[in-house]
Design a protein that fits this description.
Elements (H helix, E strand, L loop, with lengths): L1 E6 L13 E5 L4 E4 L5 H8 L8 E3 L5 H4 L2 H10 L7 E5 L3 H12 L10 E5 L6 E3 L2 E7 L10 E7 L2 E5 L8 H6 L4 E5 L13 H11 L4 E4 L3 H4 L8 E2 L5 E3 L1
Parallel strand pairs: 3-4, 4-5, 5-6, 10-11, 11-12, 12-13
Antiparallel strand pairs: 1-2, 1-14, 2-3, 7-8, 8-9, 9-10
One zinc ion binds next to loops.
Length: about 240
């Protein structure tokens, strides 16, 4: 199984990085975790086959995680000429957000040449989506757009946890405990800001979580300028992890 950081950035273009988007290619399925506004450009730069993606799984409805969906769908209709079914899954409210975002981005009705399923994740349950078993955890970020989620995903014998955007919440311990890979947002170095994590907090919490591999992402300039003081692995656009 191969995970690629299509985008490792935040909402502000810090470090010139693309918005959040992870691509996972497993034996039987391929999916995206988040699809930020710049993700179509970033996928094309990496030569990722968009038509081979079965699922886009969204953590929350901020545009740096979700804003690439209208571009993905337009490209699927007009350029990639997709025929393969696509599932878009995300927090409750997904169907409304999907409609509003597409209507704002590219107004006008267009018949989709492929089957599209919108699946709202059930919090507190194991959600089976294709070959994935997805457990969502409600984290603390900005619920004005609906609940923001971290995901623990089991697939083909591996466990991946992605924090999404969040400040510290103890639920992250359950979400990431013993995971093969924990991809965690780390916005600030020392001083936490509202709605995001800081390395100073993760240094206290990560040992108890016991994930086998930790990669920090979604870093602000504050983190990026001190990368040489960070003892954890950090993400880059295009970084590949084999699991
Ligand atoms: Zn974000
Ligand atoms: Zn956010």
């Amino acid at each position: 199984m191969r995970l690629t950081f299509v985008g490792s950035g935040d909402a502000f273009g810090s470090g010139g990085r693309f918005n959040t988007c992870l691509h996972v290619a497993a034996e039987r399925t391929r999916f995206l975790l988040d699809c930020g506004a710049s993700s179509l450009v970033a996928m094309r730069r990496l030569g990722i086959d968009r038509n081979a993606i079965d699922l886009i799984l969204l953590t929350h409805f901020h545009a740096d995680h979700f804003g690439g969906v209208p571009f993905f769908v337009l490209d699927a209709q007009l350029v990639a000429r997709r025929t393969r079914p696509l599932t878009i899954a995300g927090p409750p409210g997904l169907a409304g957000w999907y409609e509003r975002a597409c209507a704002l981005a590219f107004p006008g009705e267009r018949a989709l040449p492929f089957p599209l399923a919108l699946k709202e994740i059930q919090i507190g349950k194991v959600n089976r989506i294709g070959d994935l078993a997805v457990i969502p955890f409600h984290v603390r970020h900005d619920d004005r757009a609906g609940p923001c989620l971290a995901y623990r995903i089991a697939l083909e014998g591996r466990t991946i946890c992605f924090s999404g955007d969040t400040e510290w919440v103890d639920t992250l311990v359950d979400a990431a405990r013993g995971a093969d890979l924990f991809i965690c947002e780390c916005y600030m170095y020392e001083k936490p800001v509202r709605a995001h994590l800081a390395l100073s907090i993760l240094r206290e919490q990560l040992p108890a979580i016991g994930a086998k591999r930790v990669v920090l992402t979604h870093m602000s300039e504050d983190m990026l300028k001190r990368l040489n003081e960070v003892e954890y692995e950090t993400a880059d656009d295009g970084k590949v992890i084999d699991l």
